[in-house]
């Protein structure tokens, strides 16, 4: 379990206990650790919730077990034929299986080009934030996208410092990442976002549901590119809340993530995508 925060400055120097990107101390690689049995995240029983959240639980929403209790949403992206000329990408957002939560679920086609899995993953998180039924309540986004978590917590401080440039040019999917940063900063200090990494296809019912919604979205009709992306340089935030609006907590098991070598390959693939 680990936590990291984003804002105008980089996070403190990483340690095994404070960074989600530390390598396992037992010397095992992420690939060997990934084969270990997995267990679904535990959610809060209704009886442990305060009255306001208990009322939302009655509407089908689930909450994280530890306080502050957060509404749980699963997000996922999919691309049929990813990397090919006629690829079709979709996104899925799963709030719950009944009631108001079920009605809030999303299955959509990724707009414009390119139709990649990475864009589907990012856009699923964006759409979860844009359509969150209760934006004044803390939110826990559960995703199996290492790419999205890396963008938000590992790469972002450097991108902000370097004007959204990398050694090979402009940051890939920069319009989506900037828009996502605005959405995160807009949430008040009492409604911050936590990202929880869950392994895909490992028995998490919510993750499997989001994956199905994403695959349905990729089979939907083509839609035009979005033109309403927000840029943090063009949006004013209250000075007193500027940092708290950009704080993001991350909880993962470091053994599930990529090795340093795999991370380097990921950065190169993003540049070449």
UniProtKB/TrEMBL annotation:
It comes from Vanrija humicola (Yeast). This is ribonuclease H. Residues 67-219 form the RNase H type-1 domain. Residues 1-51 are annotated as: Disordered. Residues 1-14, 28-37 have a biased composition (Low complexity). Keywords: Endonuclease, Hydrolase, Metal-binding, Nuclease. SUPFAM superfamilies: Ribonuclease H-like. It catalyses: Endonucleolytic cleavage to 5'-phosphomonoester. Belongs to the RNase H family. Its EC number is 3.1.26.4. One of its GO terms (molecular function) is metal ion binding. Gene3D superfamilies: Ribonuclease H-like superfamily/Ribonuclease H. One of its GO terms (biological process) is DNA replication, removal of RNA primer.
């Amino acid at each position: 379990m680990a936590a990291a925060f984003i804002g105008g400055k980089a996070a403190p120097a990483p340690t095994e206990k404070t960074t989600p990107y530390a390598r396992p101390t037992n010397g095992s690689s992420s690939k060997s650790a990934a084969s270990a049995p997995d267990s679904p995240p535990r959610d809060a029983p209704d009886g442990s919730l305060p009255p306001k959240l208990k009322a939302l639980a009655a509407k089908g929403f689930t909450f994280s077990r530890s306080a502050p209790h957060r509404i749980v949403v699963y997000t996922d992206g999919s691309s049929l034929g990813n990397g090919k000329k006629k690829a079709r990408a979709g996104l899925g957002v799963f709030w719950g299986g009944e009631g108001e939560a079920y009605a809030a679920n999303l299955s959509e086609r990724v707009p414009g080009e390119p139709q990649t899995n990475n864009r589907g993953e990012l856009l699923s998180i964006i759409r979860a934030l844009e359509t969150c039924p209760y934006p004044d309540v803390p939110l826990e986004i559960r995703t199996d996208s290492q790419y999205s978590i890396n963008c938000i917590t590992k790469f972002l401080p450097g991108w902000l410092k370097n004007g959204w440039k990398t050694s090979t040019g402009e940051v890939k999917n920069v319009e989506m990442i900037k828009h996502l940063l605005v959405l995160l900063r807009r949430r008040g200090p009492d409604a911050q976002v936590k990202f929880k990494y869950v392994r895909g296809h490992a028995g998490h019912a919510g993750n499997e549901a989001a994956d199905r919604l994403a695959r349905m979205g990729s089979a939907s009709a083509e839609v035009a590119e979005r033109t309403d992306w927000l840029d943090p340089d063009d949006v004013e935030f209250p000075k007193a809340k500027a940092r708290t609006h950009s704080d993001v907590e991350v909880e993962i098991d470091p053994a599930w993530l990529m090795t340093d070598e795999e991370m380097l390959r990921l950065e190169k693939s993003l540049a070449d995508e």
